[in-house]
Automatic annotation (TrEMBL):
Gene3D superfamilies: NAD(P)-binding Rossmann-like Domain. This is SDR family NAD(P)-dependent oxidoreductase. Belongs to the short-chain dehydrogenases/reductases (SDR) family. InterPro entries: NAD(P)-bd_dom_sf, Sc_DH/Rdtase_CS, SDR, SDR_fam. NCBIfam families: EF_P_mod_YmfI. It comes from Jutongia hominis.
Amino acid sequence: MSNKIAVITGASRGIGRAITLKYAQMGYDVAICCHHNKERLEETAKEVRSMQVRCLTYVGNIGNYNDACTFFHEIETKLGSIDILINNAGISCFGLLQDTTPEQWDAMITSNLNSVFYCSKLAIPEMLSKKSGKILSISSVWGNVGASMEVPYSTTKGAINAFTKALAKELGPSNIQVNAIACGMIDTEMNAVLSEDDITAITEEIPAGRMGTPEEVAELAFAITKKNDYLTGQIITLDGGWI
């Protein structure tokens, strides 16, 4: 019997890498991608393959429909039918809205939102044919409440939350579950732009008293997609009680 297949976008580092390793540890074959960092993506793939599961890698901009199509064609021809899609790819941007350039806005929409649309669109037909599947997107607490100085980022994450709820209703009758994790402050390179004083000030506001880890996000992602077919259309917050 062949392994189930999980697709994880933005898997070269941070949350995406942790999720990839979790599924590999649990015996899934994985297909992973990133936009630029081929070397780090291959490092992740090397660790995955040491667990005796298959790993397909792709470097490209999945916020571009042609690149996303190429990625999913390779998955279909080299691995097989997708069971789980984890939409994790994304970028952040700090700054006042009036200082945000059109190019920065477009890049944010492309990376954070278009990638979710394209990958979900391409994964759904196979899931429909099997009448089973899980789609999970990595969102943010700023998609729930918005963040000053992060208007474009908050916008994309809020859109992902709405996308999740709507798509869950559309696919529920076909036994395909769609959920999202709204992450709080997670200890990743994306937050490396913050100073130590900024991080200290934020963690003092978090009841758990610390940042979350990528591995904790990965554990929750796996739990959400493992079994429960009645759990769908939910934005599950993982923030240590912060927001």
